[in-house]
């Protein structure tokens, strides 16, 4: 009797389990539950993905990236519609297949390695997703191990790089076109500036000839006109020279080398009479920097020229030059006893054609210091100034030590 009761109890339990299995199979057949069957050494297993109506499933289906759920052998348990679109493969043919079929064969070892670690894996380089029609799509993968309801697997996010690659290509093309246009503009600037000098020099020379030969025969008013013509021609010639120098600086393609700045200053002072006759003190140093010879020459020439030029009437120019190390770099200082610069103008003076308050009365084009800044930045350095109105300025350029 006891055995009969036990058998009846076991039968009821079996019937309940069978009814549950039947319900699950009916749900799979009707599409209420997505499932695939995977066969392995341990026998067949049914994997189900419940709740297509849940917010999580909706989120994954609507995302712009492809999404996969894999078991450790690489079989796809789930794929969203975006991945099916990327691979140009019907969704029912994606689920249950190996994810390797969607990548070139030479990437199989890398894909297999991604499924052997529990650590997150983000492919540093782009991969090619192979579509059903044989086309390829550049992608990046993000792989994470997962464990849900006792099922160990991996989630994979596939990011389509097509638009980014197209944008990068378009940006490179635009950048190349801008560089080409810039080079053309520099060449035009150099050409036009060079060609303007001949008629300008003719204007200067004829104006000076008239002043030298006929000044005593001219009335004061026409003589003053000639003097203004000669002065304006000289000013324009100076501006053209600076534009040519700026163009030469931009076009300079020489390789970087090492230079002793103090030695360069000394050689420049010796080679130019106006500098040699001035009161310029150079504190010698053996420190060297990396730079370009033309660019460094422009910097030194402009800084020394300004130090001698911007001094009050009646004051003898006094200039001191030295170098000092600072945070692994070397600074060249050029100190003068000139008119000084207002705090609000200390950045503005490095802008091209800038003529700040106080220096309008002095000859100049407003290009010199902008050339210094351009040259120093071209060499990977910095430029700056310390100044006090009426008590001079200390300009500095900072470059990498050699």
Task: List the topology elements.
Elements: H1 2-30, E1 34-40, E2 43-49, H2 55-62, E3 66-70, E4 76-79, H3 81-87, H4 91-94, H5 108-114, E5 121-122, E6 127-130, E7 136-148, E8 151-160, H6 162-214, H7 220-251, E9 257-260, H8 261-271, H9 273-276, E10 280-282, E11 288-291, H10 293-309, E12 319-326, E13 329-335, H11 368-378, E14 382-387, E15 393-400
Parallel strand pairs: 10-12
Antiparallel strand pairs: 1-2, 3-4, 3-8, 5-7, 6-7, 7-8, 9-11, 12-13, 13-15, 14-15
Helix pairs in contact: 6-7, 8-10, 10-11
If you had to describe this structure to a student in words, what would you say it looks like?
The chain has 402 residues and is of the alpha+beta class. Helices cover 46% and strands 23% of the residues. It folds into 3 domains: 107 residues, PAS domain (Beta-Lactamase, 2-Layer Sandwich), CATH 3.30.450; 86 residues, Signal transduction histidine kinase, dimerisation/phosphotransfer (DHp) domain (Helix Hairpins, Orthogonal Bundle), CATH 1.10.287; 149 residues, Heat Shock Protein 90 (2-Layer Sandwich), CATH 3.30.565. The strands form 4 sheets. Strands 3, 4, 5, 6, 7 and 8 form a 6-stranded antiparallel sheet that branches. The protein has a 5-stranded mixed sheet with strand order 10-12-13-15-14. The chain is elongated and about 145 Å long.
């Amino acid at each position: 009797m006891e055995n009969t009761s036990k058998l009846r109890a076991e039968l009821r339990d079996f019937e309940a389990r069978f009814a549950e299995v039947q319900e699950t199979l009916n749900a799979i057949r009707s599409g209420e539950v997505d499932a695939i069957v995977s066969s392995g050494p341990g026998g067949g297993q049914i994997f189900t993905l419940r709740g297509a109506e849940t917010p999580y499933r909706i989120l994954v289906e609507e995302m712009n990236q492809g999404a996969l759920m894999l078991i450790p052998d690489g079989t796809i348990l789930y794929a969203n519609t975006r991945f099916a679109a990327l691979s140009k493969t019907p969704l029912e043919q994606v689920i249950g297949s190996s994810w390797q079929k969607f990548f070139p064969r030479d990437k199989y070892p890398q894909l297999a390695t991604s499924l052997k670690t529990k650590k997150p894996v983000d492919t540093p380089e782009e991969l090619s997703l192979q579509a059903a029609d044989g086309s390829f799509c550049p992608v990046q993968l993000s792989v994470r191990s997962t464990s849900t309801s006792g099922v160990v697997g991996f989630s994979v996010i596939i990011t389509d790089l097509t638009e980014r690659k197209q944008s990068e290509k378009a940006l490179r093309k635009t950048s190349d076109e801008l560089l080409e246009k810039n080079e053309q503009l520099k060449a035009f600037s150099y050409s036009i500036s060079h060609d303007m000098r001949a008629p300008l020099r003719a204007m200067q020379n004829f104006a000076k000839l008239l002043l030298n030969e006929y000044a005593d025969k001219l009335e004061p008013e026409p003589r003053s006109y000639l003097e203004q013509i000669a002065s304006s021609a000289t000013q324009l010639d100076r501006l053209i020279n600076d534009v040519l120098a700026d163009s030469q600086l931009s076009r300079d393609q020489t390789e970087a080398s090492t230079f002793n700045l103090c030695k360069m200053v000394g050689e420049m002072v010796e080679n130019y009479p106006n500098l040699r006759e001035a009161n310029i003190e150079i504190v010698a140093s053996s420190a060297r920097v990396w730079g370009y010879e033309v660019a460094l020459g422009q910097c030194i020439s402009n800084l020394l020229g300004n130090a001698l030029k911007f001094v009050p009437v009646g004051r003898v120019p006094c200039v001191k030059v030295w170098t000092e190390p600072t945070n692994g770099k070397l600074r060249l200082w050029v100190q003068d006893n000139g008119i000084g610069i207002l705090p609000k103008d200390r950045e503005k003076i490095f802008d091209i054609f800038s003529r700040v308050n106080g220096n309008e009365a002095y000859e100049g084009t407003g290009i010199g210091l902008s050339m210094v800044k351009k040259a120093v930045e071209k060499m990977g350095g910095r430029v700056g100034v310390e100044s006090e109105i009426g008590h001079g300025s200390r300009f500095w350029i900072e470059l990498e030590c050699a």
